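INSTRUCTION: Work out how this chain folds

Token vocabulary: learned, describes local backbone geometry

RECORD BEGINS BELOW THIS LINE
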Amino acid sequence: MKIVLLSGGSGKRLWPLSNDSRSKQFLKVLETPSGGLESMVQRVWRQLERVGLQSDAVVATSRSQVDILYSQIGPQVPVVMEPERRDTFPAIALAVSYLHSVEGMGEDEAVAVLPVDSYVEDHFFSKVQELREIVESSESDLALIGVEPTFPSEKYGYIVPVPESGEEKPYQAVSHFREKPPEEEAARLIGRNALWNCGVFAFRVGWLVQQVEKLGIPTAFEDLKRRYGELPKISFDHQVVEKTERIAVLPYRGSWKDLGTWNTLSEEMDTPLIGKGSLSHDSKNTHLINELDIPVAVLGISDAVVAVSPDGILVSDKGASPRLKEVLTFDQRTMYEECPWGWYRVTDYNRYDEESEMLTRRMSIRAGKGLESHFHRKRQEVWTVLFGEGEIELDGERKPIRAGDVIRISPMVRHSLTAATDLELMEVQSGPELTEADVWAV
């Protein structure tokens, strides 16, 4: 059985640390067994290795998240990249097409789909392995995992099983679904043995291929990728699950949590303070996460989260934090991003008029890594080396660089950079259009 890890998200629910390129699963706020910090995707990837499933996993993601995926879990991770963002049904269809037509999976083999940000214990993945037998040997077209609820939550969807018939099976047939009911209704559903829907399901390859063929779209990987924009922009639940009659659910009794908001994420953080700052002793159940180099002090504020990053500052009561998306009406460029070569942080940006912009960013490049050869048509750049040594290539001419050097790069000049040691530099961009669209690979 192959596993498809879904890595998506718009990056708004955990703003300002998350953004379009660094969604919630990439925030390094969870403690590792050795006492360091890791992200949700690093945690799941480590768990898959520990239970022997990592070699069977591929990640379905968007173009904007590929760099940070490679940065956090390594360039060897198999990635199926969407040509554009179109929700979970197209992403899953493309990943299964890749497994079928490129990796050679048979139509009767099983595929399991998991969110990449699942916060679970290791034995959860043994339940995932059990899904294979259900979809390959039963009459069910879909097999889900349902978490036994610990309280009547209004935040989760519920899987309502068919009343037991007396025949003992490890799984149950699904009657229907209920999305985020009021607390009183949730309590009644739990009384009917309803389970939390954790977004994990499995199916046969051939069955999913048939769902795509019904739309009149070819299922060979390259063909599907070329016509990806014709797939409906819809979730897998709405396009497939809600229209499927033969569904089984496998109950799971154990720890599971959706860390989608600041209040739930902070419950799993082992320290209340990350970064430069201080919390007063009377700031009870308050978390401070600071990614800037300036100190932040929190005095006498309880049950709150304070998050500080180059993208903005959030001060919120924990109970109110799920409403964050309601107030994020503004749009801005990404101010911090992790890359395969290191990271960058925008320190200043200004638009003077229609034809003149200026952007300054601090770049940190790891030893042995670098920027591949490229050029810009509309902007010029000035690099000031702050620390370390490396080699730059300008229009085919190579020369060493070190701390104190200043390099001017004009439009249309091909350039690349390799760091011999850890290297930091300040980059000043100027021109009429300072966007990633003006980065042309050579």
Remarks:
- DSSP finds ten helices and 30 strands in the chain.
- The mean pLDDT is 92.
- The two ends are 39 Å apart (CA to CA).
- The domain at 341-441 is CATH 2.60.120.10 (Jelly Rolls).
